[in-house]
């Protein structure tokens, strides 16, 4: 086979945020792109549904009009902060700082709606052909290009992009990221209606109950009076404790007095849905001969918050730059594409590393209680923690013993 038989320049597997961002950035390039997704849009994606300020900022970095379209997108509610509930049940409300773009620092939107919004931005692009409802069965890398087989057709391309989530077949066939329970979280989600007690500014809630540490229980408000409820925990802890996450979710709602009151008139809208989170707590190879891995397929989920959409969009945007470079040079070697790995970790590793270490601090519930209590009684501590949400350098302070010594003795911080 030779180049005359190549169907596409690029095949992108996965039409979620990472695949969207990559293809959107390549929409004006002279490149023929195929996108393959096993689902048909609109489709659900099990997730917490929270969208950080970075999501909005990535849209504006990609295209001003894209950011403006998202601001007009109706199927979302704003969120101006986060409530941290400590193991001793005291809580701390922190307001997000104003973002660089947009009307709110964060939003919450069901993934069935949000991902469909993204899909609509690429479905009619002239250089993009989308194959929905097709399962990828096999992928081979040959000297001339990539061969991909779905349950309906065979395609060839010069490059392939793995944007196909936690169980990426692109990674499985071509990459080298293995599932490691210490670097993987198990999660469960259930939609409800009628949950009460939300903050007036739609704060997302993270409840750090002792029995879940170093994981947490969450409640996120949604449009139309609904709520996204769930919990996430390191897979190694789930295995060690032999936990049934569905049972754990129900037990928490039924046994914790604060939750029991808020859920007394609530109705579940679905059975609990399980999912996996490959967290970015370890550097991995993200590329190779003729391929790149993006988003969840590249294990770029924040270890502490579990947020992955912002990093998925960012990885797709960055990947497009290296794809353009590869085609300009007609060079698809692992050596050239490894520059993508370097850039991703240059942009993301510092925050991922710090988030991992903060995640490990959650093994000490009394420390969490102490910080929350101090923040509630000391406005300067509360201001510092607010700034830490967006400032990686300030976040490092949480890892230093002297930070807690200062808190203990009431010193100025």
Separation, N- and C-terminal Cα atoms: 66 Å
CATH class of the largest domain: Alpha Beta
Sheet bearing the most strands, described? 8 strands, mixed
Query: Approximately how much beta-strand content do the residues carry?
Result: 15-25%
Mean pLDDT: 91
Radius of gyration: 22 Å
Oligomer: single chain
CATH superfamily label of the largest domain: FAD/NAD(P)-binding domain
3D shape: globular
Uncertain residue ranges = none
Notes on the structure:
This protein is of the alpha+beta class and 413 residues long. It has three domains: 3-78 and 109-179 and 280-358, FAD/NAD(P)-binding domain, CATH 3.50.50; 181-278, 2-Layer Sandwich (D-Amino Acid Oxidase, Chain A, domain 2); 378-408, no CATH class. The protein contains 14 helices and 19 strands. The chain has helices at residues 17-25, 53-62, 64-72, 111-122, 169-174, 235-241, 245-255, 257-262, 309-329, 334-361, 365-377, 379-388, 392-395, 401-408; strands at 8-13, 33-37, 50-51, 77-79, 81-85, 91-95, 106-108, 128-132, 136-141, 146-150, 154-162, 184-193, 204-207, 216-221, 226-234, 267-268, 273-278, 287-288, 291-293. The longest helix has 28 residues, at 334-361. The protein starts with 7 loop residues before the first strand and ends in a 5-residue tail after the last helix. The mean pLDDT is 91. GO terms for molecular function: FAD binding; oxidoreductase activity, acting on the CH-CH group of donors, NAD or NADP as acceptor.
């Amino acid at each position: 086979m030779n180049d005359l038989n190549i169907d596409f320049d690029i095949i992108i597997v996965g039409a979620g945020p990472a695949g969207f961002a990559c293809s959107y950035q390549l929409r004006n390039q002279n490149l023929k792109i195929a996108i393959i997704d096993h689902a048909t849009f609109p489709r659900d994606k099990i997730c917490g549904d929270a969208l950080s300020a970075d999501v909005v900022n990535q849209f504006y970095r990609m295209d001003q009009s894209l950011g403006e379209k998202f601001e007009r997108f109706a199927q979302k509610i704003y969120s101006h902060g986060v409530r941290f509930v400590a193991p001793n049940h005291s809580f701390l409300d922190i307001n997000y700082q104003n973002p660089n773009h947009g009307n709110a620092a964060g939003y919450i939107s069901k993934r069935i709606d949000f991902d469909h919004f993204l899909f609509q931005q690429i479905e009619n692009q002239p250089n993009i052909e989308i194959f929905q409802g097709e399962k990828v069965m096999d992928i081979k890398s040959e000297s001339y290009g990539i061969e991909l087989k779905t349950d309906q057709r065979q395609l060839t391309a010069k490059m392939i992009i793995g944007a196909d989530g936690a169980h990426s077949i692109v990674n499985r066939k071509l990459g080298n990221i293995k599932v490691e329970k210490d670097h993987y979280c198990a999660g469960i989600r259930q939609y409800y209606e009628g949950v009460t007690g939300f903050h007036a500014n739609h704060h997302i809630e993270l409840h750090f109950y002792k029995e879940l540490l170093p994981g947490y229980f969450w409640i996120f408000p949604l449009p139309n009076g609904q709520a996204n409820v769930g919990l996430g925990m390191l897979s190694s802890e789930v295995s060690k404790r032999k936990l049934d996450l569905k049972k754990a979710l129900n037990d928490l709602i039924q046994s914790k007095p604060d939750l029991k009151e808020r859920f007394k008139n609530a109705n579940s809208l679905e059975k609990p849905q399980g999912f996996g989170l490959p967290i970015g707590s370890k550097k991995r190879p993200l590329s190779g001969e003729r391929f790149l891995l993006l988003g969840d397929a590249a294990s770029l989920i924040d270890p502490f918050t579990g947020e992955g959409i912002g990093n998925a969009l960012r990885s797709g945007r960055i990947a497009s730059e290296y794809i353009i470079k590869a085609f300009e040079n007609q060079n698809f070697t692992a050596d050239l594409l490894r520059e993508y790995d370097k850039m991703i970790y240059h942009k993301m590793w510092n925050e991922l590393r710090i988030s991992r270490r903060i995640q490990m601090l959650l093994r000490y519930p009394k420390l969490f209680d102490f910080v929350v209590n101090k923040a509630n009684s000391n406005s300067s501590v509360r201001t510092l923690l607010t700034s830490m949400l967006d400032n990686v350098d300030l976040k490092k302070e949480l890892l230093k013993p002297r930070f807690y010594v200062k808190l203990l003795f009431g010193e100025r911080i």
